[in-house]
Amino acid sequence: MGIVRIEGAIADYPWGGEGALSRLLGWPDTSAMEAEWWLGTHPLRPSHTHQGETVSSWLASTGSSPELPYLFKILAPHAPLSLQVHPSSAQAQEGFAREEADGVALDAPTRLFKDPHPKPELVVALGGPFHALAGIRPVDETISVLESLGEGSAPISSFVDRLRFEPMGDVISWLLSGGDEVSFLVSELEARSDGDDTLSRLVAHYPGDPGIAVAMVMNRVTLLPGESLFLDAGQLHAYLEGFAIELMAPSDNVLRGGLTSKHVDVPGLLAITDFTPTSPPRLEPAAASGGGVVFAPDGQTFALGLVEGSDVSASHAVSGPTVVVCTEGEWVLQGEHNELPVAHGQAAIVDASEGRLRLTGTGQLWWAFAD
To answer: Which part of the chain is CATH 2.60.120.10?
Structure first.
């Protein structure tokens, strides 16, 4: 009972790709829109065991908490996601309590806080380059890009002046206000988007959106397979394209400022965004004691392990429920009492009774756990 195969749930958001996850994970071909594969106990898309039992129920039957302290996803953006930010724990609790008291339905398009949890998130590129906007980049870098892009443009020159003399929060607030001056700036950026990969992607999907201008003040990041970002509360970001593993706190709280057809709440986004310019929030993995590597963001309660290669033998100490996903090849999960084979595109959960989990096989295997 300590190791069982589980089935995740697909999110069909419009920024995904037709059959994208099925192709990545070796499932049967489909034309259905596939954006995210959720593995966890979040009530929006709970996972089930092969016997049809919810993972929450299975965990309870093992004597564990019925709720996992993390949410594991595989992402497949084929179009840019919204310009967004996630709340801290205190902000999530306050926002959730406020909307509950106001009687806002959980499934209402205007609902911002769907649970009382923060949503820090770790993302690791999978199978190819993963493109993203992540955090506010140093102002001098943005000015250099704009001056190269906007020679002879009065709206872009005015934008540069604001960046030189105004706080970043005021600049982004102005951009998202969407006034005539911002519209002129966005039009100028669109006219000069040829040759700029970020602008051309956003213009193709969201012409006229003020988020196009906000993107210019953000770090543009390309992650190669195995490279990662950690986005803490308040960090402005938008994923653009690629495949990735994502591990986060068990939350679906998102505040959006643009680049989306979903509900946008600019005051809400501005209230929780950290406007401090910084380098891209990359996270370097560390060697895992039992083999492979581990991505463990400081101060967080979750971590992600990875083992890959041919004829590999590694191990992981199971101190709490661990979700395992095979993205290449075939593996055997062997605990102190049970074992289970997992192949490409399959997932499993292991409870603490298995003690130490041995991982043997060929390909690529990930595991999520409470750190």
So the answer is: 3-133+222-283, 286-370
